[in-house]
């Protein structure tokens, strides 16, 4: 079944595996991290058990979402190997891995491409002024370092998801500048699948003392993003962070067409439970929108995959539950 109709909104039936919550950065809005050494790493056998359970469910995407071990830490190689092994395991069990593990070296990205159908990294905001505020103690948030990741993903032909974090001290012009940078890179490499527009939503752990990004502003940002971004990039919004049915519909009306990975828990925003599929359908229906599942790789990128990954993706596409995706 093709789902390319313009009245379709997609989502990815997903499950998030967190190899480790430890992170050497300290972004002040973070509700995810623990200090290095303070939380045990996820073992392969524990993940194996989880994945066995998931095989009985409708889950396709395994999102590997990790805190970062410092590139010069003696633990870096073991950290990277654990992520690689988890992806390999998920793939062997029939799932499609998508990794977002923060800043990676070119060699690490090249390795992970072998066991991921797509990868991701939020650009967040490019303005350097955040290095004096929310990113004062977050070396991975240097704008040029994050832009470099998007360039490497393009050079390596990795289908990529990126996005903006809204409401962390940027101006509107800063947002447009970040969107323009994504647009420029996509025009060069044609590798960006989706841009997430994620409103800052305060949580229990963060020290950043600022209100939530006003959801009433989100449709305007989406409409402007739709103007800036090339039409083959889908705009994604996290529905659990737009806590009002009418504003969620307004976001779709403004141009958002994807609701991201829906899993039991939002690891990045644990204070905001995911809205599950049936409820989302009921919210969208009055607006005339249909909700449809998608894979973590869009069909136009299938030819970038290795033989093994292509076979795994084909298996899911042949099931007929996942079709082409809306882009506008
Ligand atoms: S937001 Fe990401 S990079 Fe920043 S501290 Fe949290 S886990 Fe680390």
TrEMBL record:
HAMAP family for this protein: FO_synth_sub1
Q: Which GO terms describe its molecular function?
A: 4 iron, 4 sulfur cluster binding; 7,8-didemethyl-8-hydroxy-5-deazariboflavin synthase activity; iron ion binding; transferase activity, transferring alkyl or aryl (other than methyl) groups
Q: Which residues form the Radical SAM core domain?
A: 9-240
The note on cofactor binding and number reads: Binds 1 [4Fe-4S] cluster. The cluster is coordinated with 3 cysteines and an exchangeable S-adenosyl-L-methionine.
- Its source organism is Chrysosporum bergii ANA360D
PANTHER family attached to this UniProt entry: 7,8-DIDEMETHYL-8-HYDROXY-5-DEAZARIBOFLAVIN SYNTHASE (PTHR43076:SF15), FO SYNTHASE (COFH) (PTHR43076)
* Function according to Swiss-Prot or TrEMBL: Catalyzes the radical-mediated synthesis of 7,8-didemethyl-8-hydroxy-5-deazariboflavin (FO) from 5-amino-5-(4-hydroxybenzyl)-6-(D-ribitylimino)-5,6-dihydrouracil.
This chain belongs to the protein called 7,8-didemethyl-8-hydroxy-5-deazariboflavin synthase
What pathway is this protein a component of? Cofactor biosynthesis; coenzyme F0 biosynthesis
List the cofactors: [4Fe-4S] cluster
InterPro entries registered for this protein in UniProt: Aldolase_TIM, CofG_family, Elp3/MiaA/NifB-like_rSAM, F420, rSAM, rSAM_sf
| Keywords, comma-separated and alphabetical | 4Fe-4S, Iron, Iron-sulfur, Lyase, Metal-binding, S-adenosyl-L-methionine
NCBIfam families on file: F420_cofG, PRK06245.1
